[in-house]
TrEMBL record:
Lineage of the species this protein comes from: Bacteria, Pseudomonadati, Pseudomonadota, Alphaproteobacteria, Acetobacterales
GO cellular component, one term: membrane
Matching SUPFAM superfamilies: OmpA-like, OMPA-like
Protein name from the UniProt record: OmpA family protein
Alphabetic keyword roster: Membrane, Signal
Amino acid sequence: MRLRTALLATTLMAAAPAAASATTITGPYVNVAGGYNLVQNQHAHLNGANAGGPPPGGTSSQLRHNTGFTGFGAFGWGFGNGLRAEVEGVYNYSNIDHRPGTSLPGHTRGSDQSYGGFVNVLYDIDLKQFGIDAPVTPFVGVGAGYLWQHYNPIDTNYAHGAGHTRIGGTNGGFAYQGIVGAAYDTGIPGFQVTTEYRMIGQPGSFMDGAFHYSGSKGTGGNVNFDHRFNHQFILGLRYAFDTAPPPPPPAPVVAAPAPLPARSYLVFFDWDKSVLTGRARQIVAEAAQASTHVQTTRIEVNGYTDNSAAHPGPRGEKYNLGLSLRRADSVKAELIRDGVPASAIDVHGYGEAHPLVPTGPNTREPQNRRVEIILH
């Protein structure tokens, strides 16, 4: 009944509600814990000259354990993939209150303790792989090590003055354990609360100390114990040193915005001409189309010439000024034909001023014979 109740308590703790995502350990950690230690009845085989005398009246008996506790400290390393390895030191204590199997009634009182160490390998189960996002991480593990068993001693006093027996001594041997538990995030980086059930076993016969009988006969002999099992229900604290938060998720990929239409267009003319070529009409159409796709309040149309002229001298500069204005008017008329409102177009003629390519005097330069359309 005691074992069943303790198992139920551990199960309920492992099923406690959760409120955030669990932590996977990467790097070093420490763990300290303690709890209830329940030892199954131990079978004792008494050997020696008086082992079969009264009392105890037989060569076999049992030690029945009552209350007990356990405590341990561990240092481990998490590999970031759920696997952990650790070394731990452990101490177990158990009261012994009965020794059935003797021919006379008696009262038994005593305790035993064990201490030693284990090397454990554990695996943390990531609940996210099952679609569960919770601040709890179940884990399982196994361990192997060495424990010393010490009896403190254990005295049995028999009724009617028949005497007493005493069992005591220390011996050590191989031990193993199985572990199942869960770790709960506390909201403090690195700190977790753990709950565990452990079963520790020490296989084979275990020879420990001397068996003493006092009464009508002498003393002598020893005791050989068989397989020992500890059932432990543990609450602990664990701290992981490497608790840097996970890297933020990658920023969502945002498609680059489509390039905006150009806001300035150049239309070129033949020498001493203001008539649009086929290519010039294409460029004007592009500018008209662009004015409908970008925020445009007005369209500026500026005409220019190179510094050569059909009429040299001051008369030529005046002529080129008029030629640049005629070129701008030709572009304006084409914009209107392409759907641009006339009220949105401002026309200017600058003649030979502001050349695109600087030249010497009276030089024919195709790039300076132009109209610039600017979208504002």
